[in-house]
């Protein structure tokens, strides 16, 4: 296990290369989000090697290739409610390491890459 609730298998690259260069700060964020929503978090995409990232159409220099991003989902709330809960927790100072929050169909993207000015990057995919 990489942390209390997340395994290496869950966060490793899905191409079969077995790389899993996940940063501890991301694991901390994922644990906080899991605690916040009170339900298991499922990892759609964690670490991606550059080859796999390119193959699936990921943006060059994706935060996933640097081990600081994950696409996640859970089964308790709608995706919009899940996104709103994470955003509210950030605004309440409970997820200070959050640097990016994206809303996609069926998942949200979270990352711990903080821009120099410290603002939270947000988008909808």
From TrEMBL:
Residues 5-111 form the Peptidase M15A C-terminal domain. It holds the Pfam family Peptidase_M15_3. Gene3D superfamilies: 3.30.1380.10. SUPFAM superfamilies: Hedgehog/DD-peptidase (SSF55166). Coiled coil: none annotated. This is Peptidase M15A.
